[in-house]
Amino acid sequence: MSQFRADEPTLDTIADVGVLIAVEGLDGAGKRTVVDGLVDRWTRAGHRVSTFAFPRYGESVTADLAAEALHGGNGDLTDSVYGMAVLFALDRAGAAAEIAAALTHSDVVLLDRYVASSAAYSAARLDEDPDGEVVSWVADLEFHRLRLPVPDHQLLLDVDPQVAMGRASSRAANEADRPTDRYERDRGLQERTYARYRGLAEMSWMSPWSLIGDLADTETVDKLLLD
What we know:
Blueprint: H1 11-14, E1 19-24, H2 31-44, E2 49-53, H3 61-70, H4 81-93, H5 96-105, E3 108-112, H6 115-126, H7 133-145, E4 153-157, H8 161-174, H9 182-185, H10 187-202, E5 209-212, H11 218-226
Parallel strand pairs: 1-3, 1-4, 2-3, 4-5
GO molecular function: ATP binding; dTMP kinase activity
Protein name: Thymidylate kinase
Family: Belongs to the thymidylate kinase family.
C-alpha cells in the first residue's frame, strides 16, 4: 500500500538507465497526453526516451483482429474474455524484442498501455477481484510464457470513468477514424475496470505504482509533468 502514492516519479528516483514505465488508465483518461508530456520533459532534460503504444493497431495482425471484434466483427470473438486477452498479449509479444532493444539504448522506455490493461479489463469483464484467477493467468501468460519485460514502475491515471467516457465520445465525434468500441461504450465495464485498476495499484501488482489525478486540471498536469 505504501507504493500507491500521488507523487509522479522521476528518472533520478526510479533508476539511472533502462527504466521501463507503463502508463495505464481507462480509454479517454489521457494516457497519450501524459506520455507526450513526459517525453517532452525528459528529452529537454537530456534523457534518451523511447515510447511504444499498445494495442499496435495498423501494425499488428492480432491487434487488428481484436479491434475488428470490438467493433462488431469476427463473430462472437469478443464474447471470450480469454480470447481477447490472448490477442492483446500476442500483440505486445510481437514488440518484445523492440522493447528490449530500446531498453539497451534509452534512459527510459514509456509504454502507453501495457499488461495491466488486460489484467484490469479481464477481471472487470469476469467480475473478479484484482487478486483473482484471470489476473494471475494474464501475468503468467505475458510475463512468463511470452517473456515480456516486467515494468519498473506503473502510472495510473486516476480519472473518473464518466469523465473518461465523455472524452472518448468527444474524440470519436471529432476523429472519424477513432469511433468508440464495445468496451468504451459500456459504462458498467468502465466503472468496474477503474476499480480493478485501483486494486492493482493498491497491491503494487508486478511493480510499484504511482497515482496521477484528474488530467482535466491543466495546472495539475503542468505541476506533475513540467516542474
